[in-house]
Amino acid sequence: MGKVYVVWKGRETGILEDWDSCKKSVEGFEGAQYKSFKTRREAEEALKKGFFKSVQAPKPSIKQPLPNFPAWVVDAAWNTKTGDMEYQGVDLLTRKKLFHKGPFPDGTNNIGEFLAIVHALALLHKHGSDAPIFSDSKTAISWVKKKQANTKLERTPRNGELFVLLERAEHWLRTHPFQNKILKWETEWWGENPADFGRK
Predict the structure, then answer these.
(1) What is the pLDDT along the chain (200 residues), one digit of tens a residue?
(2) Is 113 among the annotated ligand-binding positions?
(3) What is the reported pTM?
(4) Helix, strand, coil % (nearest 5) of the chain?
């Protein structure tokens, strides 16, 4: 038996037997909530627990080995003197730079981390890849899960472009269901994020 899918929020909710059915339920559905499971029993338990409890993995209590599988890693940098922000993504295994954006004036690190994750998701979606994405920002990961950047940054004449990018990113998240896992890069275990700008 293949994977089964739980849809908590979509056109059709409950346990769906195949990806095609799940896709019809969630694609283009604003705020869709769904996840795949290996067995029907796991799916039934997850359906009862709810979306957020089912997708939030408990943090391991012991040190985990350095990830060694195909994945992308993203990071952002914010200049405390100028207020400029930039972000980039790299391939975890090859360390090849996949994209770099900025600098953007009057930004924040959290906004950069959020935009980096969504940028990576959009590129992976375009290439039909479900590779996971690592970020060392809990805040940005939570914003992606909520499909909204909960920033307190004020809009200024200098950072208007950033707010346009934020609106585009939020719209993309609401209209593009994705299977990619967004994982926390554990700096205390593995050292600096490979996408780090090295300016500390």
Answers:
(1) 578 899 998 899 999 998 888 888 888 887 788 888 888 889 899 888 888 777 765 555 567 788 989 999 999 998 878 889 999 999 999 999 999 999 999 999 999 999 999 999 999 999 999 999 999 999 999 999 999 999 989 999 999 999 999 999 999 999 999 999 999 999 888 999 999 998 65
(2) yes
(3) 0.69
(4) 35, 20, 45
Residue 134 gets which letter from DSSP?
E
Q: Is 196 annotated as a binding residue?
A: yes
Q: What is the sign, positive or negative, of the torsion defined by CA atoms of 59, 49, 172, 108?
A: negative
* CB-count exposure of residue 119 (10 Å: 0-12, 13-18, 19+): buried
Question: Residue 108: which domain range?
Answer: 72-190
Residue 74 DSSP label = E
- 106 annotated to bind ligand: no
18 marked among binding-site residues: no
Tell me, yes or no, whether 197 lies in a domain: no
Same domain, 100 and 150: yes
Residue 163 belongs to domain with CATH number: 3.30.420.10
